[in-house]
Amino acid sequence: MNFHVLTLFPEMIEQGVNTSITGRAINNGLLSINAVNIRDYAFNKHNSVDDYPYGGGAGMLMQAEPVYLAYEAVKEQIDKRKQEPQKHPLRVVYLSPQGDVFNQKMAEEMAQEEDLVLLCGHYEGIDERVLEEIVTDYVSIGDYVLTGGELPAMVMIDTISRLVPGVLHNDVSAEFESFQDNLLEYPQYTKPAVFEGKAVPEVLLSGHHANIRRWRLKESLRKTKQRRPDLLQHRVLSKEEEALLEEIAQEESTQSEEL
Ligand code: ADE
Protein backbone atom coordinates (compact mmCIF):
# COMPACT_ATOMS: atom_id res chain seq x y z
CA MET A 1 0.00 0.00 0.00
CA ASN A 2 1.21 3.50 -0.83
CA PHE A 3 0.66 6.46 1.49
CA HIS A 4 1.15 9.96 0.08
CA VAL A 5 1.27 12.68 2.72
CA LEU A 6 0.89 16.33 1.71
CA THR A 7 2.51 18.30 4.51
CA LEU A 8 4.66 21.27 5.47
CA PHE A 9 6.75 18.94 7.68
CA PRO A 10 7.73 15.89 5.61
CA GLU A 11 10.65 15.03 7.92
CA MET A 12 8.21 14.65 10.81
CA ILE A 13 6.28 12.00 8.87
CA GLU A 14 9.40 10.23 7.62
CA GLN A 15 10.92 10.03 11.10
CA GLY A 16 7.65 8.95 12.63
CA VAL A 17 6.98 5.97 10.37
CA ASN A 18 10.49 4.76 9.58
CA THR A 19 10.86 2.83 12.83
CA SER A 20 9.43 -0.35 14.30
CA ILE A 21 6.80 -2.36 12.41
CA THR A 22 5.96 0.28 9.79
CA GLY A 23 9.69 0.87 9.19
CA ARG A 24 10.24 -2.84 8.59
CA ALA A 25 7.24 -2.99 6.22
CA ILE A 26 8.66 -0.05 4.25
CA ASN A 27 12.01 -1.83 3.97
CA ASN A 28 10.22 -5.01 2.86
CA GLY A 29 8.37 -3.09 0.15
CA LEU A 30 4.93 -3.79 1.63
CA LEU A 31 4.36 -0.09 2.29
CA SER A 32 5.66 3.10 0.80
CA ILE A 33 5.54 6.56 2.33
CA ASN A 34 5.75 9.50 -0.03
CA ALA A 35 5.94 12.65 2.12
CA VAL A 36 5.44 15.62 -0.20
CA ASN A 37 6.47 19.08 0.96
CA ILE A 38 3.67 21.50 0.06
CA ARG A 39 6.20 24.34 0.27
CA ASP A 40 7.93 22.91 -2.81
CA TYR A 41 4.81 24.01 -4.69
CA ALA A 42 4.74 27.59 -3.37
CA PHE A 43 4.00 29.80 -6.33
CA ASN A 44 5.57 33.07 -5.14
CA LYS A 45 9.16 34.16 -4.75
CA HIS A 46 8.97 34.23 -0.95
CA ASN A 47 8.10 30.51 -0.86
CA SER A 48 5.17 31.34 1.38
CA VAL A 49 2.18 29.03 1.48
CA ASP A 50 -0.13 30.96 3.83
CA ASP A 51 -1.94 34.29 3.97
CA TYR A 52 -4.50 36.27 5.98
CA PRO A 53 -8.13 35.15 5.81
CA TYR A 54 -10.53 37.26 3.76
CA GLY A 55 -13.01 38.95 6.08
CA GLY A 56 -10.45 39.19 8.88
CA GLY A 57 -10.01 37.03 11.96
CA ALA A 58 -7.21 35.33 13.81
CA GLY A 59 -4.33 33.46 12.24
CA MET A 60 -3.25 32.51 8.78
CA LEU A 61 -4.69 30.11 6.24
CA MET A 62 -2.89 27.72 3.93
CA GLN A 63 -3.44 28.82 0.37
CA ALA A 64 -5.27 26.71 -2.19
CA GLU A 65 -2.71 26.81 -4.98
CA PRO A 66 0.32 25.02 -3.45
CA VAL A 67 -1.93 22.35 -1.94
CA TYR A 68 -3.57 21.77 -5.31
CA LEU A 69 -0.25 21.61 -7.16
CA ALA A 70 1.16 19.14 -4.63
CA TYR A 71 -1.96 16.98 -5.03
CA GLU A 72 -1.71 17.12 -8.83
CA ALA A 73 1.93 16.03 -8.71
CA VAL A 74 0.99 13.02 -6.58
CA LYS A 75 -1.95 12.13 -8.81
CA GLU A 76 0.19 12.35 -11.91
CA GLN A 77 2.78 10.07 -10.33
CA ILE A 78 0.12 7.48 -9.47
CA ASP A 79 -1.46 7.63 -12.94
CA LYS A 80 1.95 7.21 -14.51
CA ARG A 81 2.71 4.16 -12.38
CA LYS A 82 -0.62 2.64 -13.35
CA GLN A 83 -0.08 3.75 -16.96
CA GLU A 84 -3.47 5.47 -17.29
CA PRO A 85 -5.74 7.92 -15.40
CA GLN A 86 -7.68 5.99 -12.76
CA LYS A 87 -11.44 5.54 -12.99
CA HIS A 88 -11.71 4.85 -9.26
CA PRO A 89 -11.37 8.33 -7.66
CA LEU A 90 -8.20 8.82 -5.68
CA ARG A 91 -8.96 8.78 -1.96
CA VAL A 92 -7.83 12.04 -0.32
CA VAL A 93 -8.23 12.36 3.44
CA TYR A 94 -8.11 15.79 5.08
CA LEU A 95 -7.14 15.51 8.75
CA SER A 96 -9.32 17.90 10.71
CA PRO A 97 -11.12 18.02 14.07
CA GLN A 98 -14.25 18.63 11.98
CA GLY A 99 -14.03 15.18 10.35
CA ASP A 100 -15.66 11.84 11.16
CA VAL A 101 -13.93 10.29 14.15
CA PHE A 102 -11.45 7.61 13.04
CA ASN A 103 -12.13 4.03 14.09
CA GLN A 104 -11.09 0.45 13.31
CA LYS A 105 -13.86 -0.02 10.76
CA MET A 106 -12.66 3.01 8.76
CA ALA A 107 -9.10 1.67 8.97
CA GLU A 108 -10.21 -1.72 7.62
CA GLU A 109 -11.98 -0.08 4.74
CA MET A 110 -9.07 2.24 3.86
CA ALA A 111 -6.60 -0.66 4.04
CA GLN A 112 -8.24 -1.93 0.82
CA GLU A 113 -6.91 1.09 -1.13
CA GLU A 114 -3.72 0.79 -3.13
CA ASP A 115 -2.99 4.52 -2.74
CA LEU A 116 -4.15 6.86 0.02
CA VAL A 117 -3.45 10.60 0.12
CA LEU A 118 -3.37 12.28 3.53
CA LEU A 119 -3.57 16.08 3.59
CA CYS A 120 -2.19 17.78 6.71
CA GLY A 121 -3.34 21.28 7.55
CA HIS A 122 -1.52 23.84 9.65
CA TYR A 123 -2.18 27.35 10.91
CA GLU A 124 -5.92 27.97 11.05
CA GLY A 125 -6.74 25.59 8.22
CA ILE A 126 -6.79 25.46 4.42
CA ASP A 127 -8.66 27.56 1.84
CA GLU A 128 -12.06 25.87 1.45
CA ARG A 129 -11.96 25.87 -2.36
CA VAL A 130 -9.13 23.39 -2.66
CA LEU A 131 -10.72 21.14 -0.04
CA GLU A 132 -13.93 21.09 -2.10
CA GLU A 133 -11.89 20.26 -5.16
CA ILE A 134 -9.77 17.33 -3.94
CA VAL A 135 -10.91 15.94 -0.56
CA THR A 136 -13.00 12.74 -0.47
CA ASP A 137 -12.92 12.08 3.33
CA TYR A 138 -12.71 14.36 6.36
CA VAL A 139 -11.21 12.51 9.33
CA SER A 140 -10.60 13.51 12.97
CA ILE A 141 -8.65 11.32 15.42
CA GLY A 142 -10.64 12.56 18.42
CA ASP A 143 -12.37 15.52 20.01
CA TYR A 144 -9.34 17.64 20.76
CA VAL A 145 -7.33 20.10 18.68
CA LEU A 146 -3.72 19.47 17.62
CA THR A 147 -1.35 21.99 16.07
CA GLY A 148 -1.40 20.21 12.70
CA GLY A 149 -2.48 17.12 10.81
CA GLU A 150 0.87 15.28 10.92
CA LEU A 151 0.33 13.32 14.14
CA PRO A 152 -3.21 12.36 13.08
CA ALA A 153 -1.84 11.26 9.66
CA MET A 154 0.74 9.07 11.44
CA VAL A 155 -1.98 7.59 13.66
CA MET A 156 -3.93 6.67 10.53
CA ILE A 157 -0.86 5.26 8.74
CA ASP A 158 0.04 3.12 11.75
CA THR A 159 -3.50 1.79 12.23
CA ILE A 160 -4.09 1.05 8.54
CA SER A 161 -0.62 -0.42 7.92
CA ARG A 162 -0.97 -3.21 10.45
CA LEU A 163 -4.05 -4.40 8.53
CA VAL A 164 -2.11 -4.71 5.27
CA PRO A 165 -1.36 -8.42 4.70
CA GLY A 166 2.21 -9.30 5.68
CA VAL A 167 2.90 -6.18 7.77
CA LEU A 168 2.33 -8.05 11.02
CA HIS A 169 4.23 -11.29 10.62
CA ASN A 170 1.56 -13.03 12.57
CA ASP A 171 -1.68 -12.34 10.68
CA VAL A 172 -3.71 -13.93 13.45
CA SER A 173 -2.84 -11.17 15.88
CA ALA A 174 -4.58 -8.51 13.78
CA GLU A 175 -7.68 -10.66 13.87
CA PHE A 176 -8.08 -11.49 17.56
CA GLU A 177 -7.73 -8.30 19.48
CA SER A 178 -9.30 -5.18 20.80
CA PHE A 179 -12.24 -3.87 18.80
CA GLN A 180 -12.51 -6.95 16.66
CA ASP A 181 -16.22 -7.72 16.87
CA ASN A 182 -16.70 -5.21 19.68
CA LEU A 183 -14.75 -7.16 22.29
CA LEU A 184 -11.64 -6.04 24.17
CA GLU A 185 -8.65 -8.33 24.50
CA TYR A 186 -8.34 -10.72 27.45
CA PRO A 187 -5.44 -10.17 29.90
CA GLN A 188 -2.12 -11.82 28.99
CA TYR A 189 0.81 -13.01 31.10
CA THR A 190 4.40 -14.12 30.52
CA LYS A 191 7.28 -15.30 32.77
CA PRO A 192 7.75 -15.22 35.70
CA ALA A 193 4.77 -17.29 36.91
CA VAL A 194 4.70 -15.20 40.10
CA PHE A 195 5.34 -11.45 40.13
CA GLU A 196 5.18 -9.39 43.34
CA GLY A 197 3.28 -12.24 44.94
CA LYS A 198 0.74 -12.35 42.09
CA ALA A 199 0.42 -15.70 40.34
CA VAL A 200 -0.63 -16.20 36.73
CA PRO A 201 -4.19 -17.59 36.57
CA GLU A 202 -3.89 -21.35 36.99
CA VAL A 203 -5.98 -22.30 33.98
CA LEU A 204 -3.32 -20.78 31.68
CA LEU A 205 -0.72 -23.22 33.04
CA SER A 206 -3.05 -26.22 32.72
CA GLY A 207 -2.50 -26.92 29.02
CA HIS A 208 -6.27 -27.56 28.76
CA HIS A 209 -7.11 -25.74 25.52
CA ALA A 210 -10.89 -25.75 25.83
CA ASN A 211 -10.74 -24.32 29.35
CA ILE A 212 -8.20 -21.71 28.29
CA ARG A 213 -10.39 -20.62 25.38
CA ARG A 214 -13.42 -20.32 27.67
CA TRP A 215 -11.45 -18.41 30.32
CA ARG A 216 -10.14 -15.98 27.70
CA LEU A 217 -13.58 -15.36 26.27
CA LYS A 218 -14.95 -14.77 29.76
CA GLU A 219 -12.17 -12.32 30.66
CA SER A 220 -12.67 -10.49 27.34
CA LEU A 221 -16.33 -10.10 28.21
CA ARG A 222 -15.48 -8.99 31.76
CA LYS A 223 -13.03 -6.37 30.53
CA THR A 224 -15.39 -5.07 27.89
CA LYS A 225 -18.22 -4.88 30.44
CA GLN A 226 -16.00 -2.95 32.87
CA ARG A 227 -14.21 -0.61 30.47
CA ARG A 228 -16.32 -0.26 27.34
CA PRO A 229 -19.90 -1.36 28.06
CA ASP A 230 -20.96 0.62 24.95
CA LEU A 231 -19.17 -1.97 22.77
CA LEU A 232 -21.17 -4.86 24.21
CA GLN A 233 -24.39 -3.21 23.05
CA HIS A 234 -23.17 -3.66 19.47
CA ARG A 235 -22.16 -7.28 19.83
CA VAL A 236 -24.42 -10.15 18.85
CA LEU A 237 -23.94 -12.50 21.82
CA SER A 238 -23.74 -16.27 21.46
CA LYS A 239 -25.48 -18.54 24.01
CA GLU A 240 -22.07 -19.25 25.57
CA GLU A 241 -21.33 -15.53 25.91
CA GLU A 242 -24.70 -14.87 27.51
CA ALA A 243 -23.98 -17.62 30.02
CA LEU A 244 -20.50 -16.21 30.74
CA LEU A 245 -21.91 -12.71 31.26
CA GLU A 246 -24.44 -14.20 33.66
CA GLU A 247 -21.55 -15.85 35.60
CA ILE A 248 -19.71 -12.51 35.67
CA ALA A 249 -22.79 -10.71 36.97
CA GLN A 250 -23.18 -13.32 39.73
CA GLU A 251 -19.51 -13.00 40.69
CA GLU A 252 -19.89 -9.24 40.85
CA SER A 253 -22.92 -9.43 43.08
CA THR A 254 -21.18 -11.94 45.40
CA GLN A 255 -18.17 -9.61 45.60
CA SER A 256 -20.30 -6.58 46.41
CA GLU A 257 -22.11 -8.59 49.15
CA GLU A 258 -18.74 -9.47 50.66
CA LEU A 259 -17.68 -5.82 50.87
N1 ADE B 1 -5.88 18.56 13.23
C1 ADE B 1 -5.96 19.21 14.40
N2 ADE B 1 -6.61 18.51 15.31
C2 ADE B 1 -6.98 17.33 14.71
C3 ADE B 1 -7.71 16.17 15.12
N3 ADE B 1 -8.20 16.05 16.36
N4 ADE B 1 -7.87 15.19 14.23
C4 ADE B 1 -7.39 15.30 12.98
N5 ADE B 1 -6.73 16.37 12.53
C5 ADE B 1 -6.51 17.38 13.38
Number of strands: 9
- Side by side, the strands of the main sheet go 2-1-6-5-7
- Rg is 24 Å
Strand coverage percent = 15-25%
Largest sheet: 5 strands, parallel
- Low-confidence sequence ranges: none
**Small molecules bound:** adenine
Series of secondary-structure elements, N-terminal to C-terminal: EHHEEEHEHEHEHHEEHHH
The N- and C-terminal alpha carbons lie at a distance of 54 Å
Shape verdict: elongated
Q: Please, what is the average pLDDT? A: 94
Care to give the gist of this entry?
Helix content is 42%, strand content 15%. With 259 residues, the protein is an alpha/beta fold. α4 (104-110) links the parallel β5 and β6 (115-120).
Could you explain the architecture of this structure?
- With 259 residues, this protein is an alpha/beta fold.
- The protein is built from ten helices and nine strands.
- A five-stranded parallel beta sheet has the order 2-1-6-5-7, with helices on both faces. Strands 3-4 form a two-stranded antiparallel sheet. Strands 8-9 form a two-stranded antiparallel sheet.
- Strand 8 and strand 9 (198-199) form a beta hairpin.
- Helix 1 packs parallel to helix 6 (150-161), helix 3 runs parallel beside helix 5 (128-134) and helix 8 (209-227) crosses helix 10.
- The longest helix has 20 residues, at 239-258.
- The structure holds adenine.
- Adenine is lined by residues 95-97, 140-142, 144-146, 149, 152.
